[in-house]
Amino acid sequence: MNEYDSEIMAGLLENSGYHLTDNPAEAGVILLNTCYVREKVKHKIYSRLGELKKLKEEKPELILGLCGCLVQKEPEEVLRRAPYLDFILGTSNFYQLPEVLEDISGNHNRESQSGDKYARVVRVEEDRAIPEGMPKLRKRRFSAFVSVMRGCNNFCSYCNVPYVRGREVSRPRKDILREIEELAQK
């Protein structure tokens, strides 16, 4: 699921005129799409954010965002531990990425009412509907992820998917088949 969401975010960024780079020092926007299955993963995310904080201090115009399950599970904790983030988007809000970046770009050099220097946007709504037909930047040429549903109804003791992605919601069959047919034509 995270891989699929990341492909959509990359497609949205590309359609908005952004170009991907593997070099954080070259980036104008750095976006981490998080998973939150185990505590160890959470520690890795905060460690990576600590590294990116240094880059943000050197390059204040850098827009730094965090998306995904960790944000959905504990948005207040994320903002407490990483107050230098420009935005956070939950698991159902990542499709709003172009709009959020446009808002931040227009306000990035202004201080907020609270006096901090970051134009923070927080969107962690519970609406699980993801619009169909989102652009995707696929990593693989001969295989692809196709999401047939979001969420889960099994509240297993070791898993937090139902808590961060909500109850099971299936995509309409026609949308799944259309996506598969489009992939087969490429």
UniProtKB/TrEMBL annotation:
Its cofactor is [4Fe-4S] cluster. The keyword Isomerase does not apply. Coiled coil: none annotated. It holds the Pfam family Radical_SAM. Residues 138-186 form the Radical SAM core domain. One of its GO terms (cellular component) is cytosol. Residues 1-106 form the MTTase N-terminal domain. Keywords: 4Fe-4S, Iron, Iron-sulfur, Metal-binding, S-adenosyl-L-methionine. GO terms for molecular function: 4 iron, 4 sulfur cluster binding; metal ion binding; tRNA-2-methylthio-N(6)-dimethylallyladenosine(37) synthase activity. This is Uncharacterized protein. It comes from marine sediment metagenome.
